[in-house]
Each structure stands twice: as structure tokens, then as C-alpha cells.
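Case study: Nuclear GTP-binding protein nug1.
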Amino acid sequence: MVPKKHKSKRLSLKQQHKIRKRSVEKHRKDRRDAKRNPQKKKLKKDPGIPSLLPFKDKVLQQVEEHREQIKLEKQRQKDARSQLHDTNRNLTPAPSSMAELASDAQRRSAAYEDAQQDSDSDAQEIAEGTVTGARDNSKRAYYREFQKVVQHADVILEVLDARDPLGTRAPQIERMILDAGSNKRIILVLNKIDLVPRNVVEKWLAYLRHEFPTLAFKASTQEQRRNLGHAVAGSKKATSLNTAECVGAESLIQLLKNYSRNQKIKTSISVGIIGFPNVGKSSLINSLKRSRVCGVGSTPGFTKFVQEIQLDSKLKLLDCPGIVFNSPAKGANKVDKVAAAEMMLRNCIKVELLDDPIAPVDIIVQRCNPVALHAMYNVSAFTNTREFLVQLARQRGMLKRQGIADLTGAARIVLNDWNKGKIPYYTLPPGMSQTTASGKTAAGDAAVAHGAGRAVVVNNWAKEFDIDALLGDMDTKVLADASSDNKPNRRAIVMEGHVVAQNADIAMDASSDEDLEDSSSEDDAMEEDESDSERAS
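Here is what the predicted structure looks like once written out:
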């Protein structure tokens, strides 16, 4: 019998190339994993106790005793859990009669209602404190952080939104600081002036400066992390507030340094920055520091703890979480409910947390020009808020069962657009549309009447900050360079009606029906007279 030949180990070229390709690919993946996680090591198997180890029997006995101790501890914990379960079960005996069963059900129902009320109050506290799902996010925790800033700060910067200065102002906090008799100084910073016409900014500055020193400011919107720019007065780039660079930072820093120099403070002064959520507190700090040292975001409650930033050897900034300083209680009257709905329009609470998003949309529809909403959302004419939301829901395909329009979902869309700035708006100072015979605006007269009690305070602070010389130069730098490029946005909406502010004695007058004329007539009017340019299309 012929013996079989030994099987050859020769491979075809196809197989050889396949093996080589897989080997190269494996080595490549190993090198990649080594770069991603260089500390990764394979677990080495326990070799056990060597046979030649001295006193091996004693070591084995110790290991066995340790295992027995672990086993006994587990059994002890198991028995304790079982005993606790039996004890709790014996504490609640089964009802022996229907009366006991009914009383037990009533007791459990009352306990459930109490728990629901507690959860509702917690949710209300979360909404009031602009909390968004992180640890210790209660209003009390945020207020503690706010108190730290007020206590340690020498100068308080209250940041206001230029679109709604009185709505984002906290007069009760101002009164608390002044009534305490401390030497703390309050400065109002009118942020986001690029979203408001120049003449409206000037009127707001004149109105607010009768009570406290007020500066116009625009935070930097540049995207790099370092070397954030400051617009230079007189340069070509600073001819419009539409620039991404910061405007007004130099004047604010100079104002703070004047206070430090006039008070002969040898060490650095602490500057606390307070305000409502999303008014630009962290953005202001980043603009002053020229670097992204504070996280920013459009979500209410983004800043959760006090942050200390050393600006230079003389200035130290304290960033504070945004606080909603007032909140209507449950069972409030109609005026309080309107105030609560207006609070929702200031992006102080996440839209997802709102129980009734239709109420703030109702305010938008009532006070806005319907023509602007028609063009913005491409809907036909409507007579009330419900018709507007029904058309918007059907247009976006937001339908429930049986074709019912989802009004709540449509309202959330409008509120998100409002918070993101897709619906441009601004408010006017009280009495801005009226002028006196002497040439002063009624807004200035209203400010004098309202802030008469603080006139002495402002006059005393003027010497400490060198306000008279600085504010005139600041207005020249910040506002004079904003030429005709900063005209009113023709899509911007001037809020109509009576805008309720934080307290009853502060309120903003609305634009009249004359402010909502056709766009063509407004164009001619703005070219003819400066007073007509103050009106929004």
C-alpha cells in the first residue's frame, strides 16, 4: 500500500495576503487602544501561595479564617434585614373590621395628599429658584449663595436686560442693601444694548440714573475662549453695536477703579454681580476678564455656586446664581397671576417646567402687533390667543387624537422662540412718547419723581465714582459711535399695555396705538424726526 503524502503547508497567495492583512489590522488596533488608554493593563491571575513559602500552613489558615468572617458577616446582615422586615410587618396588623379598614384607607389617603402637597411645594420652590435638575437646587440654596455675594462685596453690580430693565430689576434687594446702613454701593448695568434702538437706550439711561449710577454695556459674543475683544471708540469696527466685541467694558472698569482710588483702598475691592437669570452676569465677567472663565448658557440656573474671579490686583469679581426675587403665592388674585405669567416671559424658568405655558403666550398676543405675528409664523388673521395657537399647532403638525390641536405644545414653541430672541421686543421708559415744553422727556420727569428719595444717595456716590466726568465720556464712547446702523429693528415688537414690574410703584407705560402704524409710514416718520425713530415698527 502506498503511504499517503504529508499534507503540504504551502498556502495560496490569496490566503497569505488575507493573513497578513488581518495581522496588520490587529496590530493597528492594538496601537490605537494603547494610545487611548495607556494605563490599561491586563489583570494578572492570582498565582496563589507558593509551595515553598515558609509557614504556608499558617498563611492558609489565616485566609480560611478571613473567608469565614466574611461569610458570618453576610449571614448577620441577612438575619438583621429579616428581623426588621418581621418587626415592621407586625406593627401593622390586618384590620379586623370594616370600620378599621375605612379609617386605615382614610389615613393613607390623607398621607398621600400631604405628600402631593409637599411635592407641589417643592416643584414651586424649584421653579421660583430657577433650578434645572442638579443637586441642592432649591431656592433656599440659591439664596444662600446670593447672600454670600452681597455680604462679601464692596460694590454691587445689578445687571439689567436693556429690553426690559424694570422687569429684570429687584428693587426690594436694593432697599435691603440701602436700609442695612452698610457702605456698599449699587451700580446698574444695562446689558444687551445691541438689541434695543439707540434712542431707547439713552432714555433708559436718563431714567435710571436718577436713582443709581447706570452704565450701558454689551457683552462679547465671540466664540473663542481667550483674547475676547473690546470695541475701541472711534474705530471703524465700533461704528455699530452689531459687532461681536464687548462694548462698555473700559468705562465700567474705570468706574470701579475710581471708587477704589477715591476711597484709598490699598487692597482689592470685591464686586458682586447680581441679577435675574439670563441677563448676562457670567457673560459680563467673561467680557471684563477677556476670557471664558465662567460657564454661560441660555438655560435658567446654569450658574449654581458663587465663583470668584480675580480681574487684576485691584478688582475681584463675584459671580452669583440668578435669583427670582419675587413669586406670587398660590390662590393669588388676577393681578398676581398676570405678574406670574410675565415672570415666565423673562426666561427665569425652564419652559418644560411650566404648568400653564398658555398664560404667558396670551400676554404676548395681547401686547404685540398681530401683523408681526402673522408674518413671523405665517398664520392667518386671529382674534384671540386660542385661535393663534390652533393655527400654529395645525401648521406644525402638533395634533392629538381625533385631530385636536395641541395648544400646550404650540405655546411652548412660542415661548422657546421668545426666550431665544427669535421674537425681538423691547419696552419703553415710562412716558417716553411724551415731551415737555422744556425739551426734557416725561420719562426723565417720572424718574425724578420716583427716585426723589434716593437723589441724596446718588449725589454722595457721584464724588466717590467721579460719575459726572465719566458718564459723559462713557456715553460718547458707547453710544455716539453707534451711528444710524443701530436703528430700531423693523421686526421688533414694542410691548403694549401696562407692564407690571417687580413692585406696585414701578410700572412701564406702553406704546400707544400710534406706535404701531404701517411700516411705510414709519419709515418716512423716522427719516423726518428723531422722535419718530423712537417708535418700533
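For the exam, be able to explain this: The longest helix spans residues 56-91.
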